[in-house]
Specification:
The protein is of the alpha/beta class. The protein has 32 helices and 31 strands. The strands form ten sheets. Strands 7, 8, 9, 10, 11, 12 and 13 form a seven-stranded mixed β-sheet that branches. Strands 6-5-14-16 form a four-stranded antiparallel β-sheet. A four-stranded mixed β-sheet has the order 29-28-31-30, with helices on both faces. α23 crosses α27 and α30 packs antiparallel against α32. The radius of gyration is 37 Å and the shape is elongated.
């Protein structure tokens, strides 16, 4: 068949992906092989593919494809997360477009719309992963709201509640006024903001003066219940125990003392508003102060808890005013009272909701929590397994981050004020008593048993259940995803089944370090609680994909590329190459579209190499004498050793999760060693035959290279593999061939050959000897043995009509020193000896400078004492080589 000018990925990508699906190559069932299990970090059901997904899933696919080619039973489980906050926001927006408000719907009606939205849009990202070439077992697709998964989450909640690890209480939580739900600490992103510091004067009740407080949040002033100062602050010791008047509301509040207050911030006096600040809340509990909430769930002012203060018409006029508008209004009104002393610019931080971007409020709210300290006391292995490398982190430095978080762990708020999600299995009677159970009937049974009816009738249960109401809240999304590695194999809903026993613990988790606490730590905890073992053996943390200026990608900045558009433009292979070529584990990746262009160029390099080799197919011959195979023995032996060397190196790098370095190594082997050197060394002359054995060996080498590259670039490699010759197998499932021993001597000889070819070509260029013009190359007789095995290739590559071995200097020839060896290049045209001398002098100066730097290192006693033996040996070899080269250059200069 006639090959296209360049590799055209679109049709080829789709062809081979569908071929693998049709063959069932991605599917896995338990068998006698070693399992290699990866569970996808479930993307939000609202999601579309972006650069972070591209990096994360390409890495997973590389690992899974390589494991499959190693003969392991590779199982990569796909799925999506229901993403309570994000999905509910999408559904509310959809309803708004239809003229429907959430408040006008019952829970059941709203959920029917949510499922409608999920069925229409929820699988988009999974379909997009197919375009990237991800070899997921699609028959195993999971969703955190699937019926069995839902029941598993409820089962775990009931179990942990029964163990005393879950409790309900009114606590200070992070509150998102937009989505109107509580958030965990990990869902709050702190951002630097330009703010104002307002200095407010509080008059003393006894009329003896005032005390000034600096605050960034004057909108909460009406909820103040105390002023707090440091007990050692001499400015205020006489005021401790006195009362001041809160501006506008005119509430009398005490001045109290606590060492928590720092005397050097602001005025050294702190207003205490327990309902609107976590630290204030702790002080309020310590000093038995009342908490007065002045903001409702939407962040608007409410006077409900101010009624006992007999609020004025002014205060009542604030009702329904948004918190930020209220800030301005209260500042204006306090200024009117003459109690704003000054306003300063202030740079501070505010917490924002990860999902909505809204500024969060600290709010007292009745919520469900997991007692995380008690949980850790029960499962100490959740920490020790990471510290002792039972679970290995890549990079290992993240163990410190993990350890610090677990060492300072706080209770986990697991309830969310939403409808989309697993509804909390708690039921309340008319007196407010709570019964935790999977169904209303089971809750009724608990209530009746508590009332002394040990075996209630069905009628009694049904009658009782009608008087119970289920908790309106749903569980935090992470409360379902922490079960992911187990429940995708039904390990919770059907414990001890064949699949959970075979696939669990999973092998490798690939995820971002930004969810090390959200997800990784919690999965480890759940693994020990419910399987008494680790959930995975290795965790590969990707960095963040940033633009080439180092900025985080975002729609607002307009620096987030259209990933699907890039795949359409460059193809999946080039996109995968571009994202992987510079992505070391744990470090951020600075994305530049030029790396995708490099990937496309690599595709075309492979394609051109294929076209070159296929041109030889019809020109094969079998020599009867003076075999070309013998002539090219060195090239064949050298590349075979080089191929085996790289196979071993790539295997080692991938085991260390240095995937980017492994790709660079393969890239260099193909682009440089195979295309630029090997093919040139064995290429027949114009319209000349190619030895059949050389052609067949070249096809073998090319096939091996495609197999090595396949996990990174599955489509171009599969296409070339099948075009090289007729095949009955596919690379996708072809077992990696073992790497043989490496002939170090022949590799050294190959490096020498490349250096001499490059060096003599440089001499030709500098002396304007045209490529078609033949030269004679003279080599010192003393080193003839080194060059006799590569003499034929050397002559061909340098267009040398003869290679002669001489004892003396050759007159009218250019002298060149390459490595430690001297050469003379003789041409029919006159030689410019002056140019040659200048070049040798420059080289001499460079070598002497290099020798000086090596000597400096070797004379450093600290370096010599601490350096590894192999490092020291390398530096000593550098010195010996530099000395040898200096000697050869000086001899060449003396002979001019």
């Amino acid at each position: 068949m006639e090959l296209t000018k360049n590799f055209e990925p679109t049709a080829i990508d789709a062809k081979w992906y569908q071929h693998c699906l049709d063959k069932g190559y991605f599917n896995s069932t338990p068998d006698a092989r070693e399992a290699y299990t990866v569970v996808i970090p479930p993307p939000n059901v609202t999601g579309v593919l972006h650069m972070g997904h591209c990096l994360n899933n390409t890495i997973q696919d590389i690992l899974v494809r390589r494991a499959r080619m190693q003969g392991k039973n590779a199982c990569w489980v796909p799925g999506t997360d229901h993403a309570s906050i994000a999905t509910e926001a999408k559904v509310v927006a959809m309803l708004r477009e239809r003229g429907i408000t959430k408040s006008s719907l019952t829970r059941e009606e709203f959920l029917s719309y949510a499922w409608e939205w999920k069925e229409k849009y929820g699988g988009i990202i999974l379909q997009q992963l197919k375009k990237l070439g991800c070899s997921l077992d699609w028959s195993r697709t999971s969703f955190t709201m699937d019926e069995a998964y839902y029941k598993a989450v409820i089962k775990v909640f009931i179990d942990l509640y029964g163990k005393g690890l879950i409790y309900r209480g009114k606590r200070m939580v992070n509150w998102d006024p937009v989505s109107q739900t509580a958030l965990s600490d990990e869902e709050v992103i702190f951002k630097d903001v330009d703010s104002k510091l307002f200095y407010v004067s509080y008059k003393l009740v006894d009329g003896s003066g005032s005390i000034t407080v600096a605050t960034t949040r004057p909108e909460t002033i009406l909820g103040d219940v105390a002023i707090c100062v440091n007990p050692t602050d001499e400015r205020y010791t006489s005021l401790i125990g006195k009362e001041v008047i809160v501006p506008i509301i005119n509430r009398k509040i005490p001045v109290i003392a606590d060492e928590y207050v720092t005397a050097d911030f602001g005025t050294g006096a702190l207003k205490i508003t327990p309902a609107h600040d976590k630290n204030d809340n702790m002080l309020g509990l310590k000093h038995n102060l009342k908490a007065i909430d002045t903001l409702d769930a939407t962040g608007k002012f409410t006077a409900v808890e101010l009624m006992e203060d007999n609020p004025s018409e002014l205060v009542l006029s604030y009702n329904g005013v948004d918190r930020f508008a209220l800030r301005k209004k209260i500042v204006e009104d306090i200024t009117g009272l003459g109690q704003i002393e000054k306003i300063e610019d202030y740079k501070g931080q505010v917490g924002t909701s990860e999902r909505t971007g809204a500024v969060i409020e600290s709010r007292l709210s009745m919520q469900w929590f997991i007692d995380m300290k008690k949980f850790m006391d029960k499962n100490p292995e959740a920490l020790s397994s990471v510290l002792n490398d039972t679970i290995q982190f890549h990079p290992a430095k993240l163990k410190n981050t993990y350890s610090h978080w677990l060492g300072n762990i706080k209770d986990w708020c697991i309830s969310r004020q939403l409808w989309w999600g697993q509804q909390i299995p708690a039921w309340y009677d008319e007196e407010g008593n709570v019964f935790v159970a999977a169904t209303a009937l089971e809750a009724a049974s608990l209530k009746l048993q508590g009332a002394g009816i040990s075996q209630p009738t069905i009628a009694q249960l049904e009658a009782c259940s009608l008087k119970l109401s289920q908790d309106e809240d749903v569980l935090d999304t992470w409360f379902s995803s922490w079960l992911w590695p187990m429940e995708v194999f039904k390990g919770i809903s059907n414990p001890g089944n064949n699949e959970i026993d075979y696939y669990y613990p999973t092998t490798t988790l690939v995820t971002g370090q930004d969810i090390i606490f959200f997800w990784v730590a919690r999965m480890i905890m759940a693994g020990y609680e419910y399987k008494q073992e680790i959930p995975f053996k290795d965790v590969y943390f990707t960095g963040m994909v940033r633009d080439k200026q180092g900025r985080k990608m975002s729609k607002q900045l307009g620096n987030s590329p259209d990933l699907l558009g890039l795949i359409d433009q460059y193809g999946a292979d080039a996109t995968r190459f571009g994202i992987m070529i510079a992505s070391p584990a744990g470090n951020d990746l600075l994305f530049d579209e030029s790396s995708l262009e490099q990937g496309r160029n690599f595709n075309n390099k492979l394609w051109n190499a294929l076209k070159l080799v296929k041109m030889w197919e019809a020109r094969q011959s079998v020599s009867t004498h003076d075999s070309l195979l013998t002539t090219h023995d060195f090239a064949l032996q050298w590349f075979e050793s080089r191929l085996n060397e790289v196979k071993a190196e790539v295997d080692s790098l991938i085991k260390q999760f240095r995937l980017s370095e492994a790709l660079k190594t393969i890239y260099s082997l193909i682009w440089d060693d195979f295309c630029s050197w090997y093919l040139e060394w064995v290429k027949p002359g114009f319209e000349q035959p190619v030895e059949k054995a050389i052609y067949e060996k070249t096809i073998y080498f090319f096939s091996e290279l495609m197999q090595l590259l396949h996990p990174y670039m599955p489509f171009v490699t599969e296409e070339i593999y099948h075009l090289l010759e007729e095949r009955n197998d596919d690379l996708c499932v072809k077992q990696l061939t073992a790497f043989a021993n490496v002939d170090k001597q022949i590799l050294t000889q190959g490096n020498l050959l490349k250096d001499v070819i490059t060096g003599i070509r440089d001499v030709r260029n500098k002396n304007q000897i045209k490529p078609k013009e033949q030269i004679q190359l003279h080599i010192q007789t003393s080193i003839a043995a080194t060059y006799q095995s590569i003499e034929t290739i050397l002559a061909k590559q340098l267009n040398a009509k003869a290679i002669l071995f001489v004892d003396d200097k050759v007159s009218n020839a250019i002298s060149a020193v390459i490595g430690n060896d001297k050469f003379y290049v003789e041409s029919e045209q006159p030689m410019n000896i002056g140019n040659q001398k200048d070049d040798l002098l420059k080289d001499l100066e460079h070598q002497k400078g290099f020798l000086l730097s090596v000597d400096k290192k070797l004379s450093n006693e600290k370096f010599v004492a601490n350096a590894k033996p192999e490092v020291l040996a390398l530096e000593q070899k550098k010195k010996a080589d530099a000395l040898s080269r200096i000697k050869a250059i000086e001899e060449s200069l003396a002979a001019l």
